[in-house]
Amino acid sequence: MGKGINQEFKKAIFDVEPTALLEFYTLYHDYQNDSQAQINFHGGTNGVDGKIIFDGQEYLPLPVEADGFDILGDQRLPRAKIRFSNAGMYVSSLLRKFNNLNNAKLVRKRTFAKFIDGANFPDGNNPWGSANPDARMPDDKYFISRKVSENKAMVEFELVTTLELENIDIPGRQVSARYCPWVYRGYGCRYGYDKTSAGEDRPVANIDDELFVTGSASAGFNLNEEVVGAGNVFVNAQGNIDNKATVAACLNPRGLWSGSLQGGGNYALGDYVYTLSDRAVAGQGLTSNYYKQHPVYYVCKKSNTSPTLIPKLSPENWVKDACSKKLGACQLRFANDEWTTDTINQNQALPYGGFPGTEKYSY
Description:
The chain is mainly β and 363 residues long.
């Protein structure tokens, strides 16, 4: 059976008394300008003519017919057709407002009734057991190529796959084999994005991929003098090098820098703080997620640092956690095998063929 199909769904196909197969649709009607705006509906098939809740999302009934989703064996790409009821001229109003829905994205989900949310049933409990939003066929993703026909009763569209989109430049975002295009710790980077809690946020290296902390599990860890400056390492009362057992023990989180001391006292060697950058606001605007402020970290390389000067304007006291934009920088963060005691990136691996940030994004 098809690769990628959930095991529970496979079992349900061979049930002695299988439940109804339901189809859910999500139409991203303004996908080119706002990729999050969506309309969720189901076709009202199998006698279900009210709203259905699946995976916490409410799908409203909208009479719809669809065909041509078959995967062909002669190398031709499927060109599905979908027909919407135009009652109240609802679909026609969408056409006028959103450029005939050209290049709008349509996602079809299919699952059995036994896997939908308990909220669909009178007592709030699914009679077949627990809801399972993962138990479904792989999602079908298409784009509206053109409007075939429109009248007061029905609107029909032709759908195409990503490979057949017209008037679209590929890639939409410039991709380089040598350099990562995402803002470090921003939405696309995925490393520490929106993470400011101790244990999830630790700074790693400077812009030249020089680690803040060096060493090994057997010899211990200490601050890297090449980064924080000669002599700026941990020593004991006798003046001898005082290596730490873990990487995390060398770096002490002090929270958000706000122009005043965090937690009292002066900043000490190995302390780190973060500020919030709005760089993504001006540079990236594909979805609302790009507008979130992302953290920028600084490591204290000189004890008794003055708390009144913002870290980026005080390079003699602070060193910035930065990324060289090369694959080696990803390796330091996602797959640093030398830091076997570091739970942040222990036993991780880089994906084949690209930067880790590209894994999550596809049509």
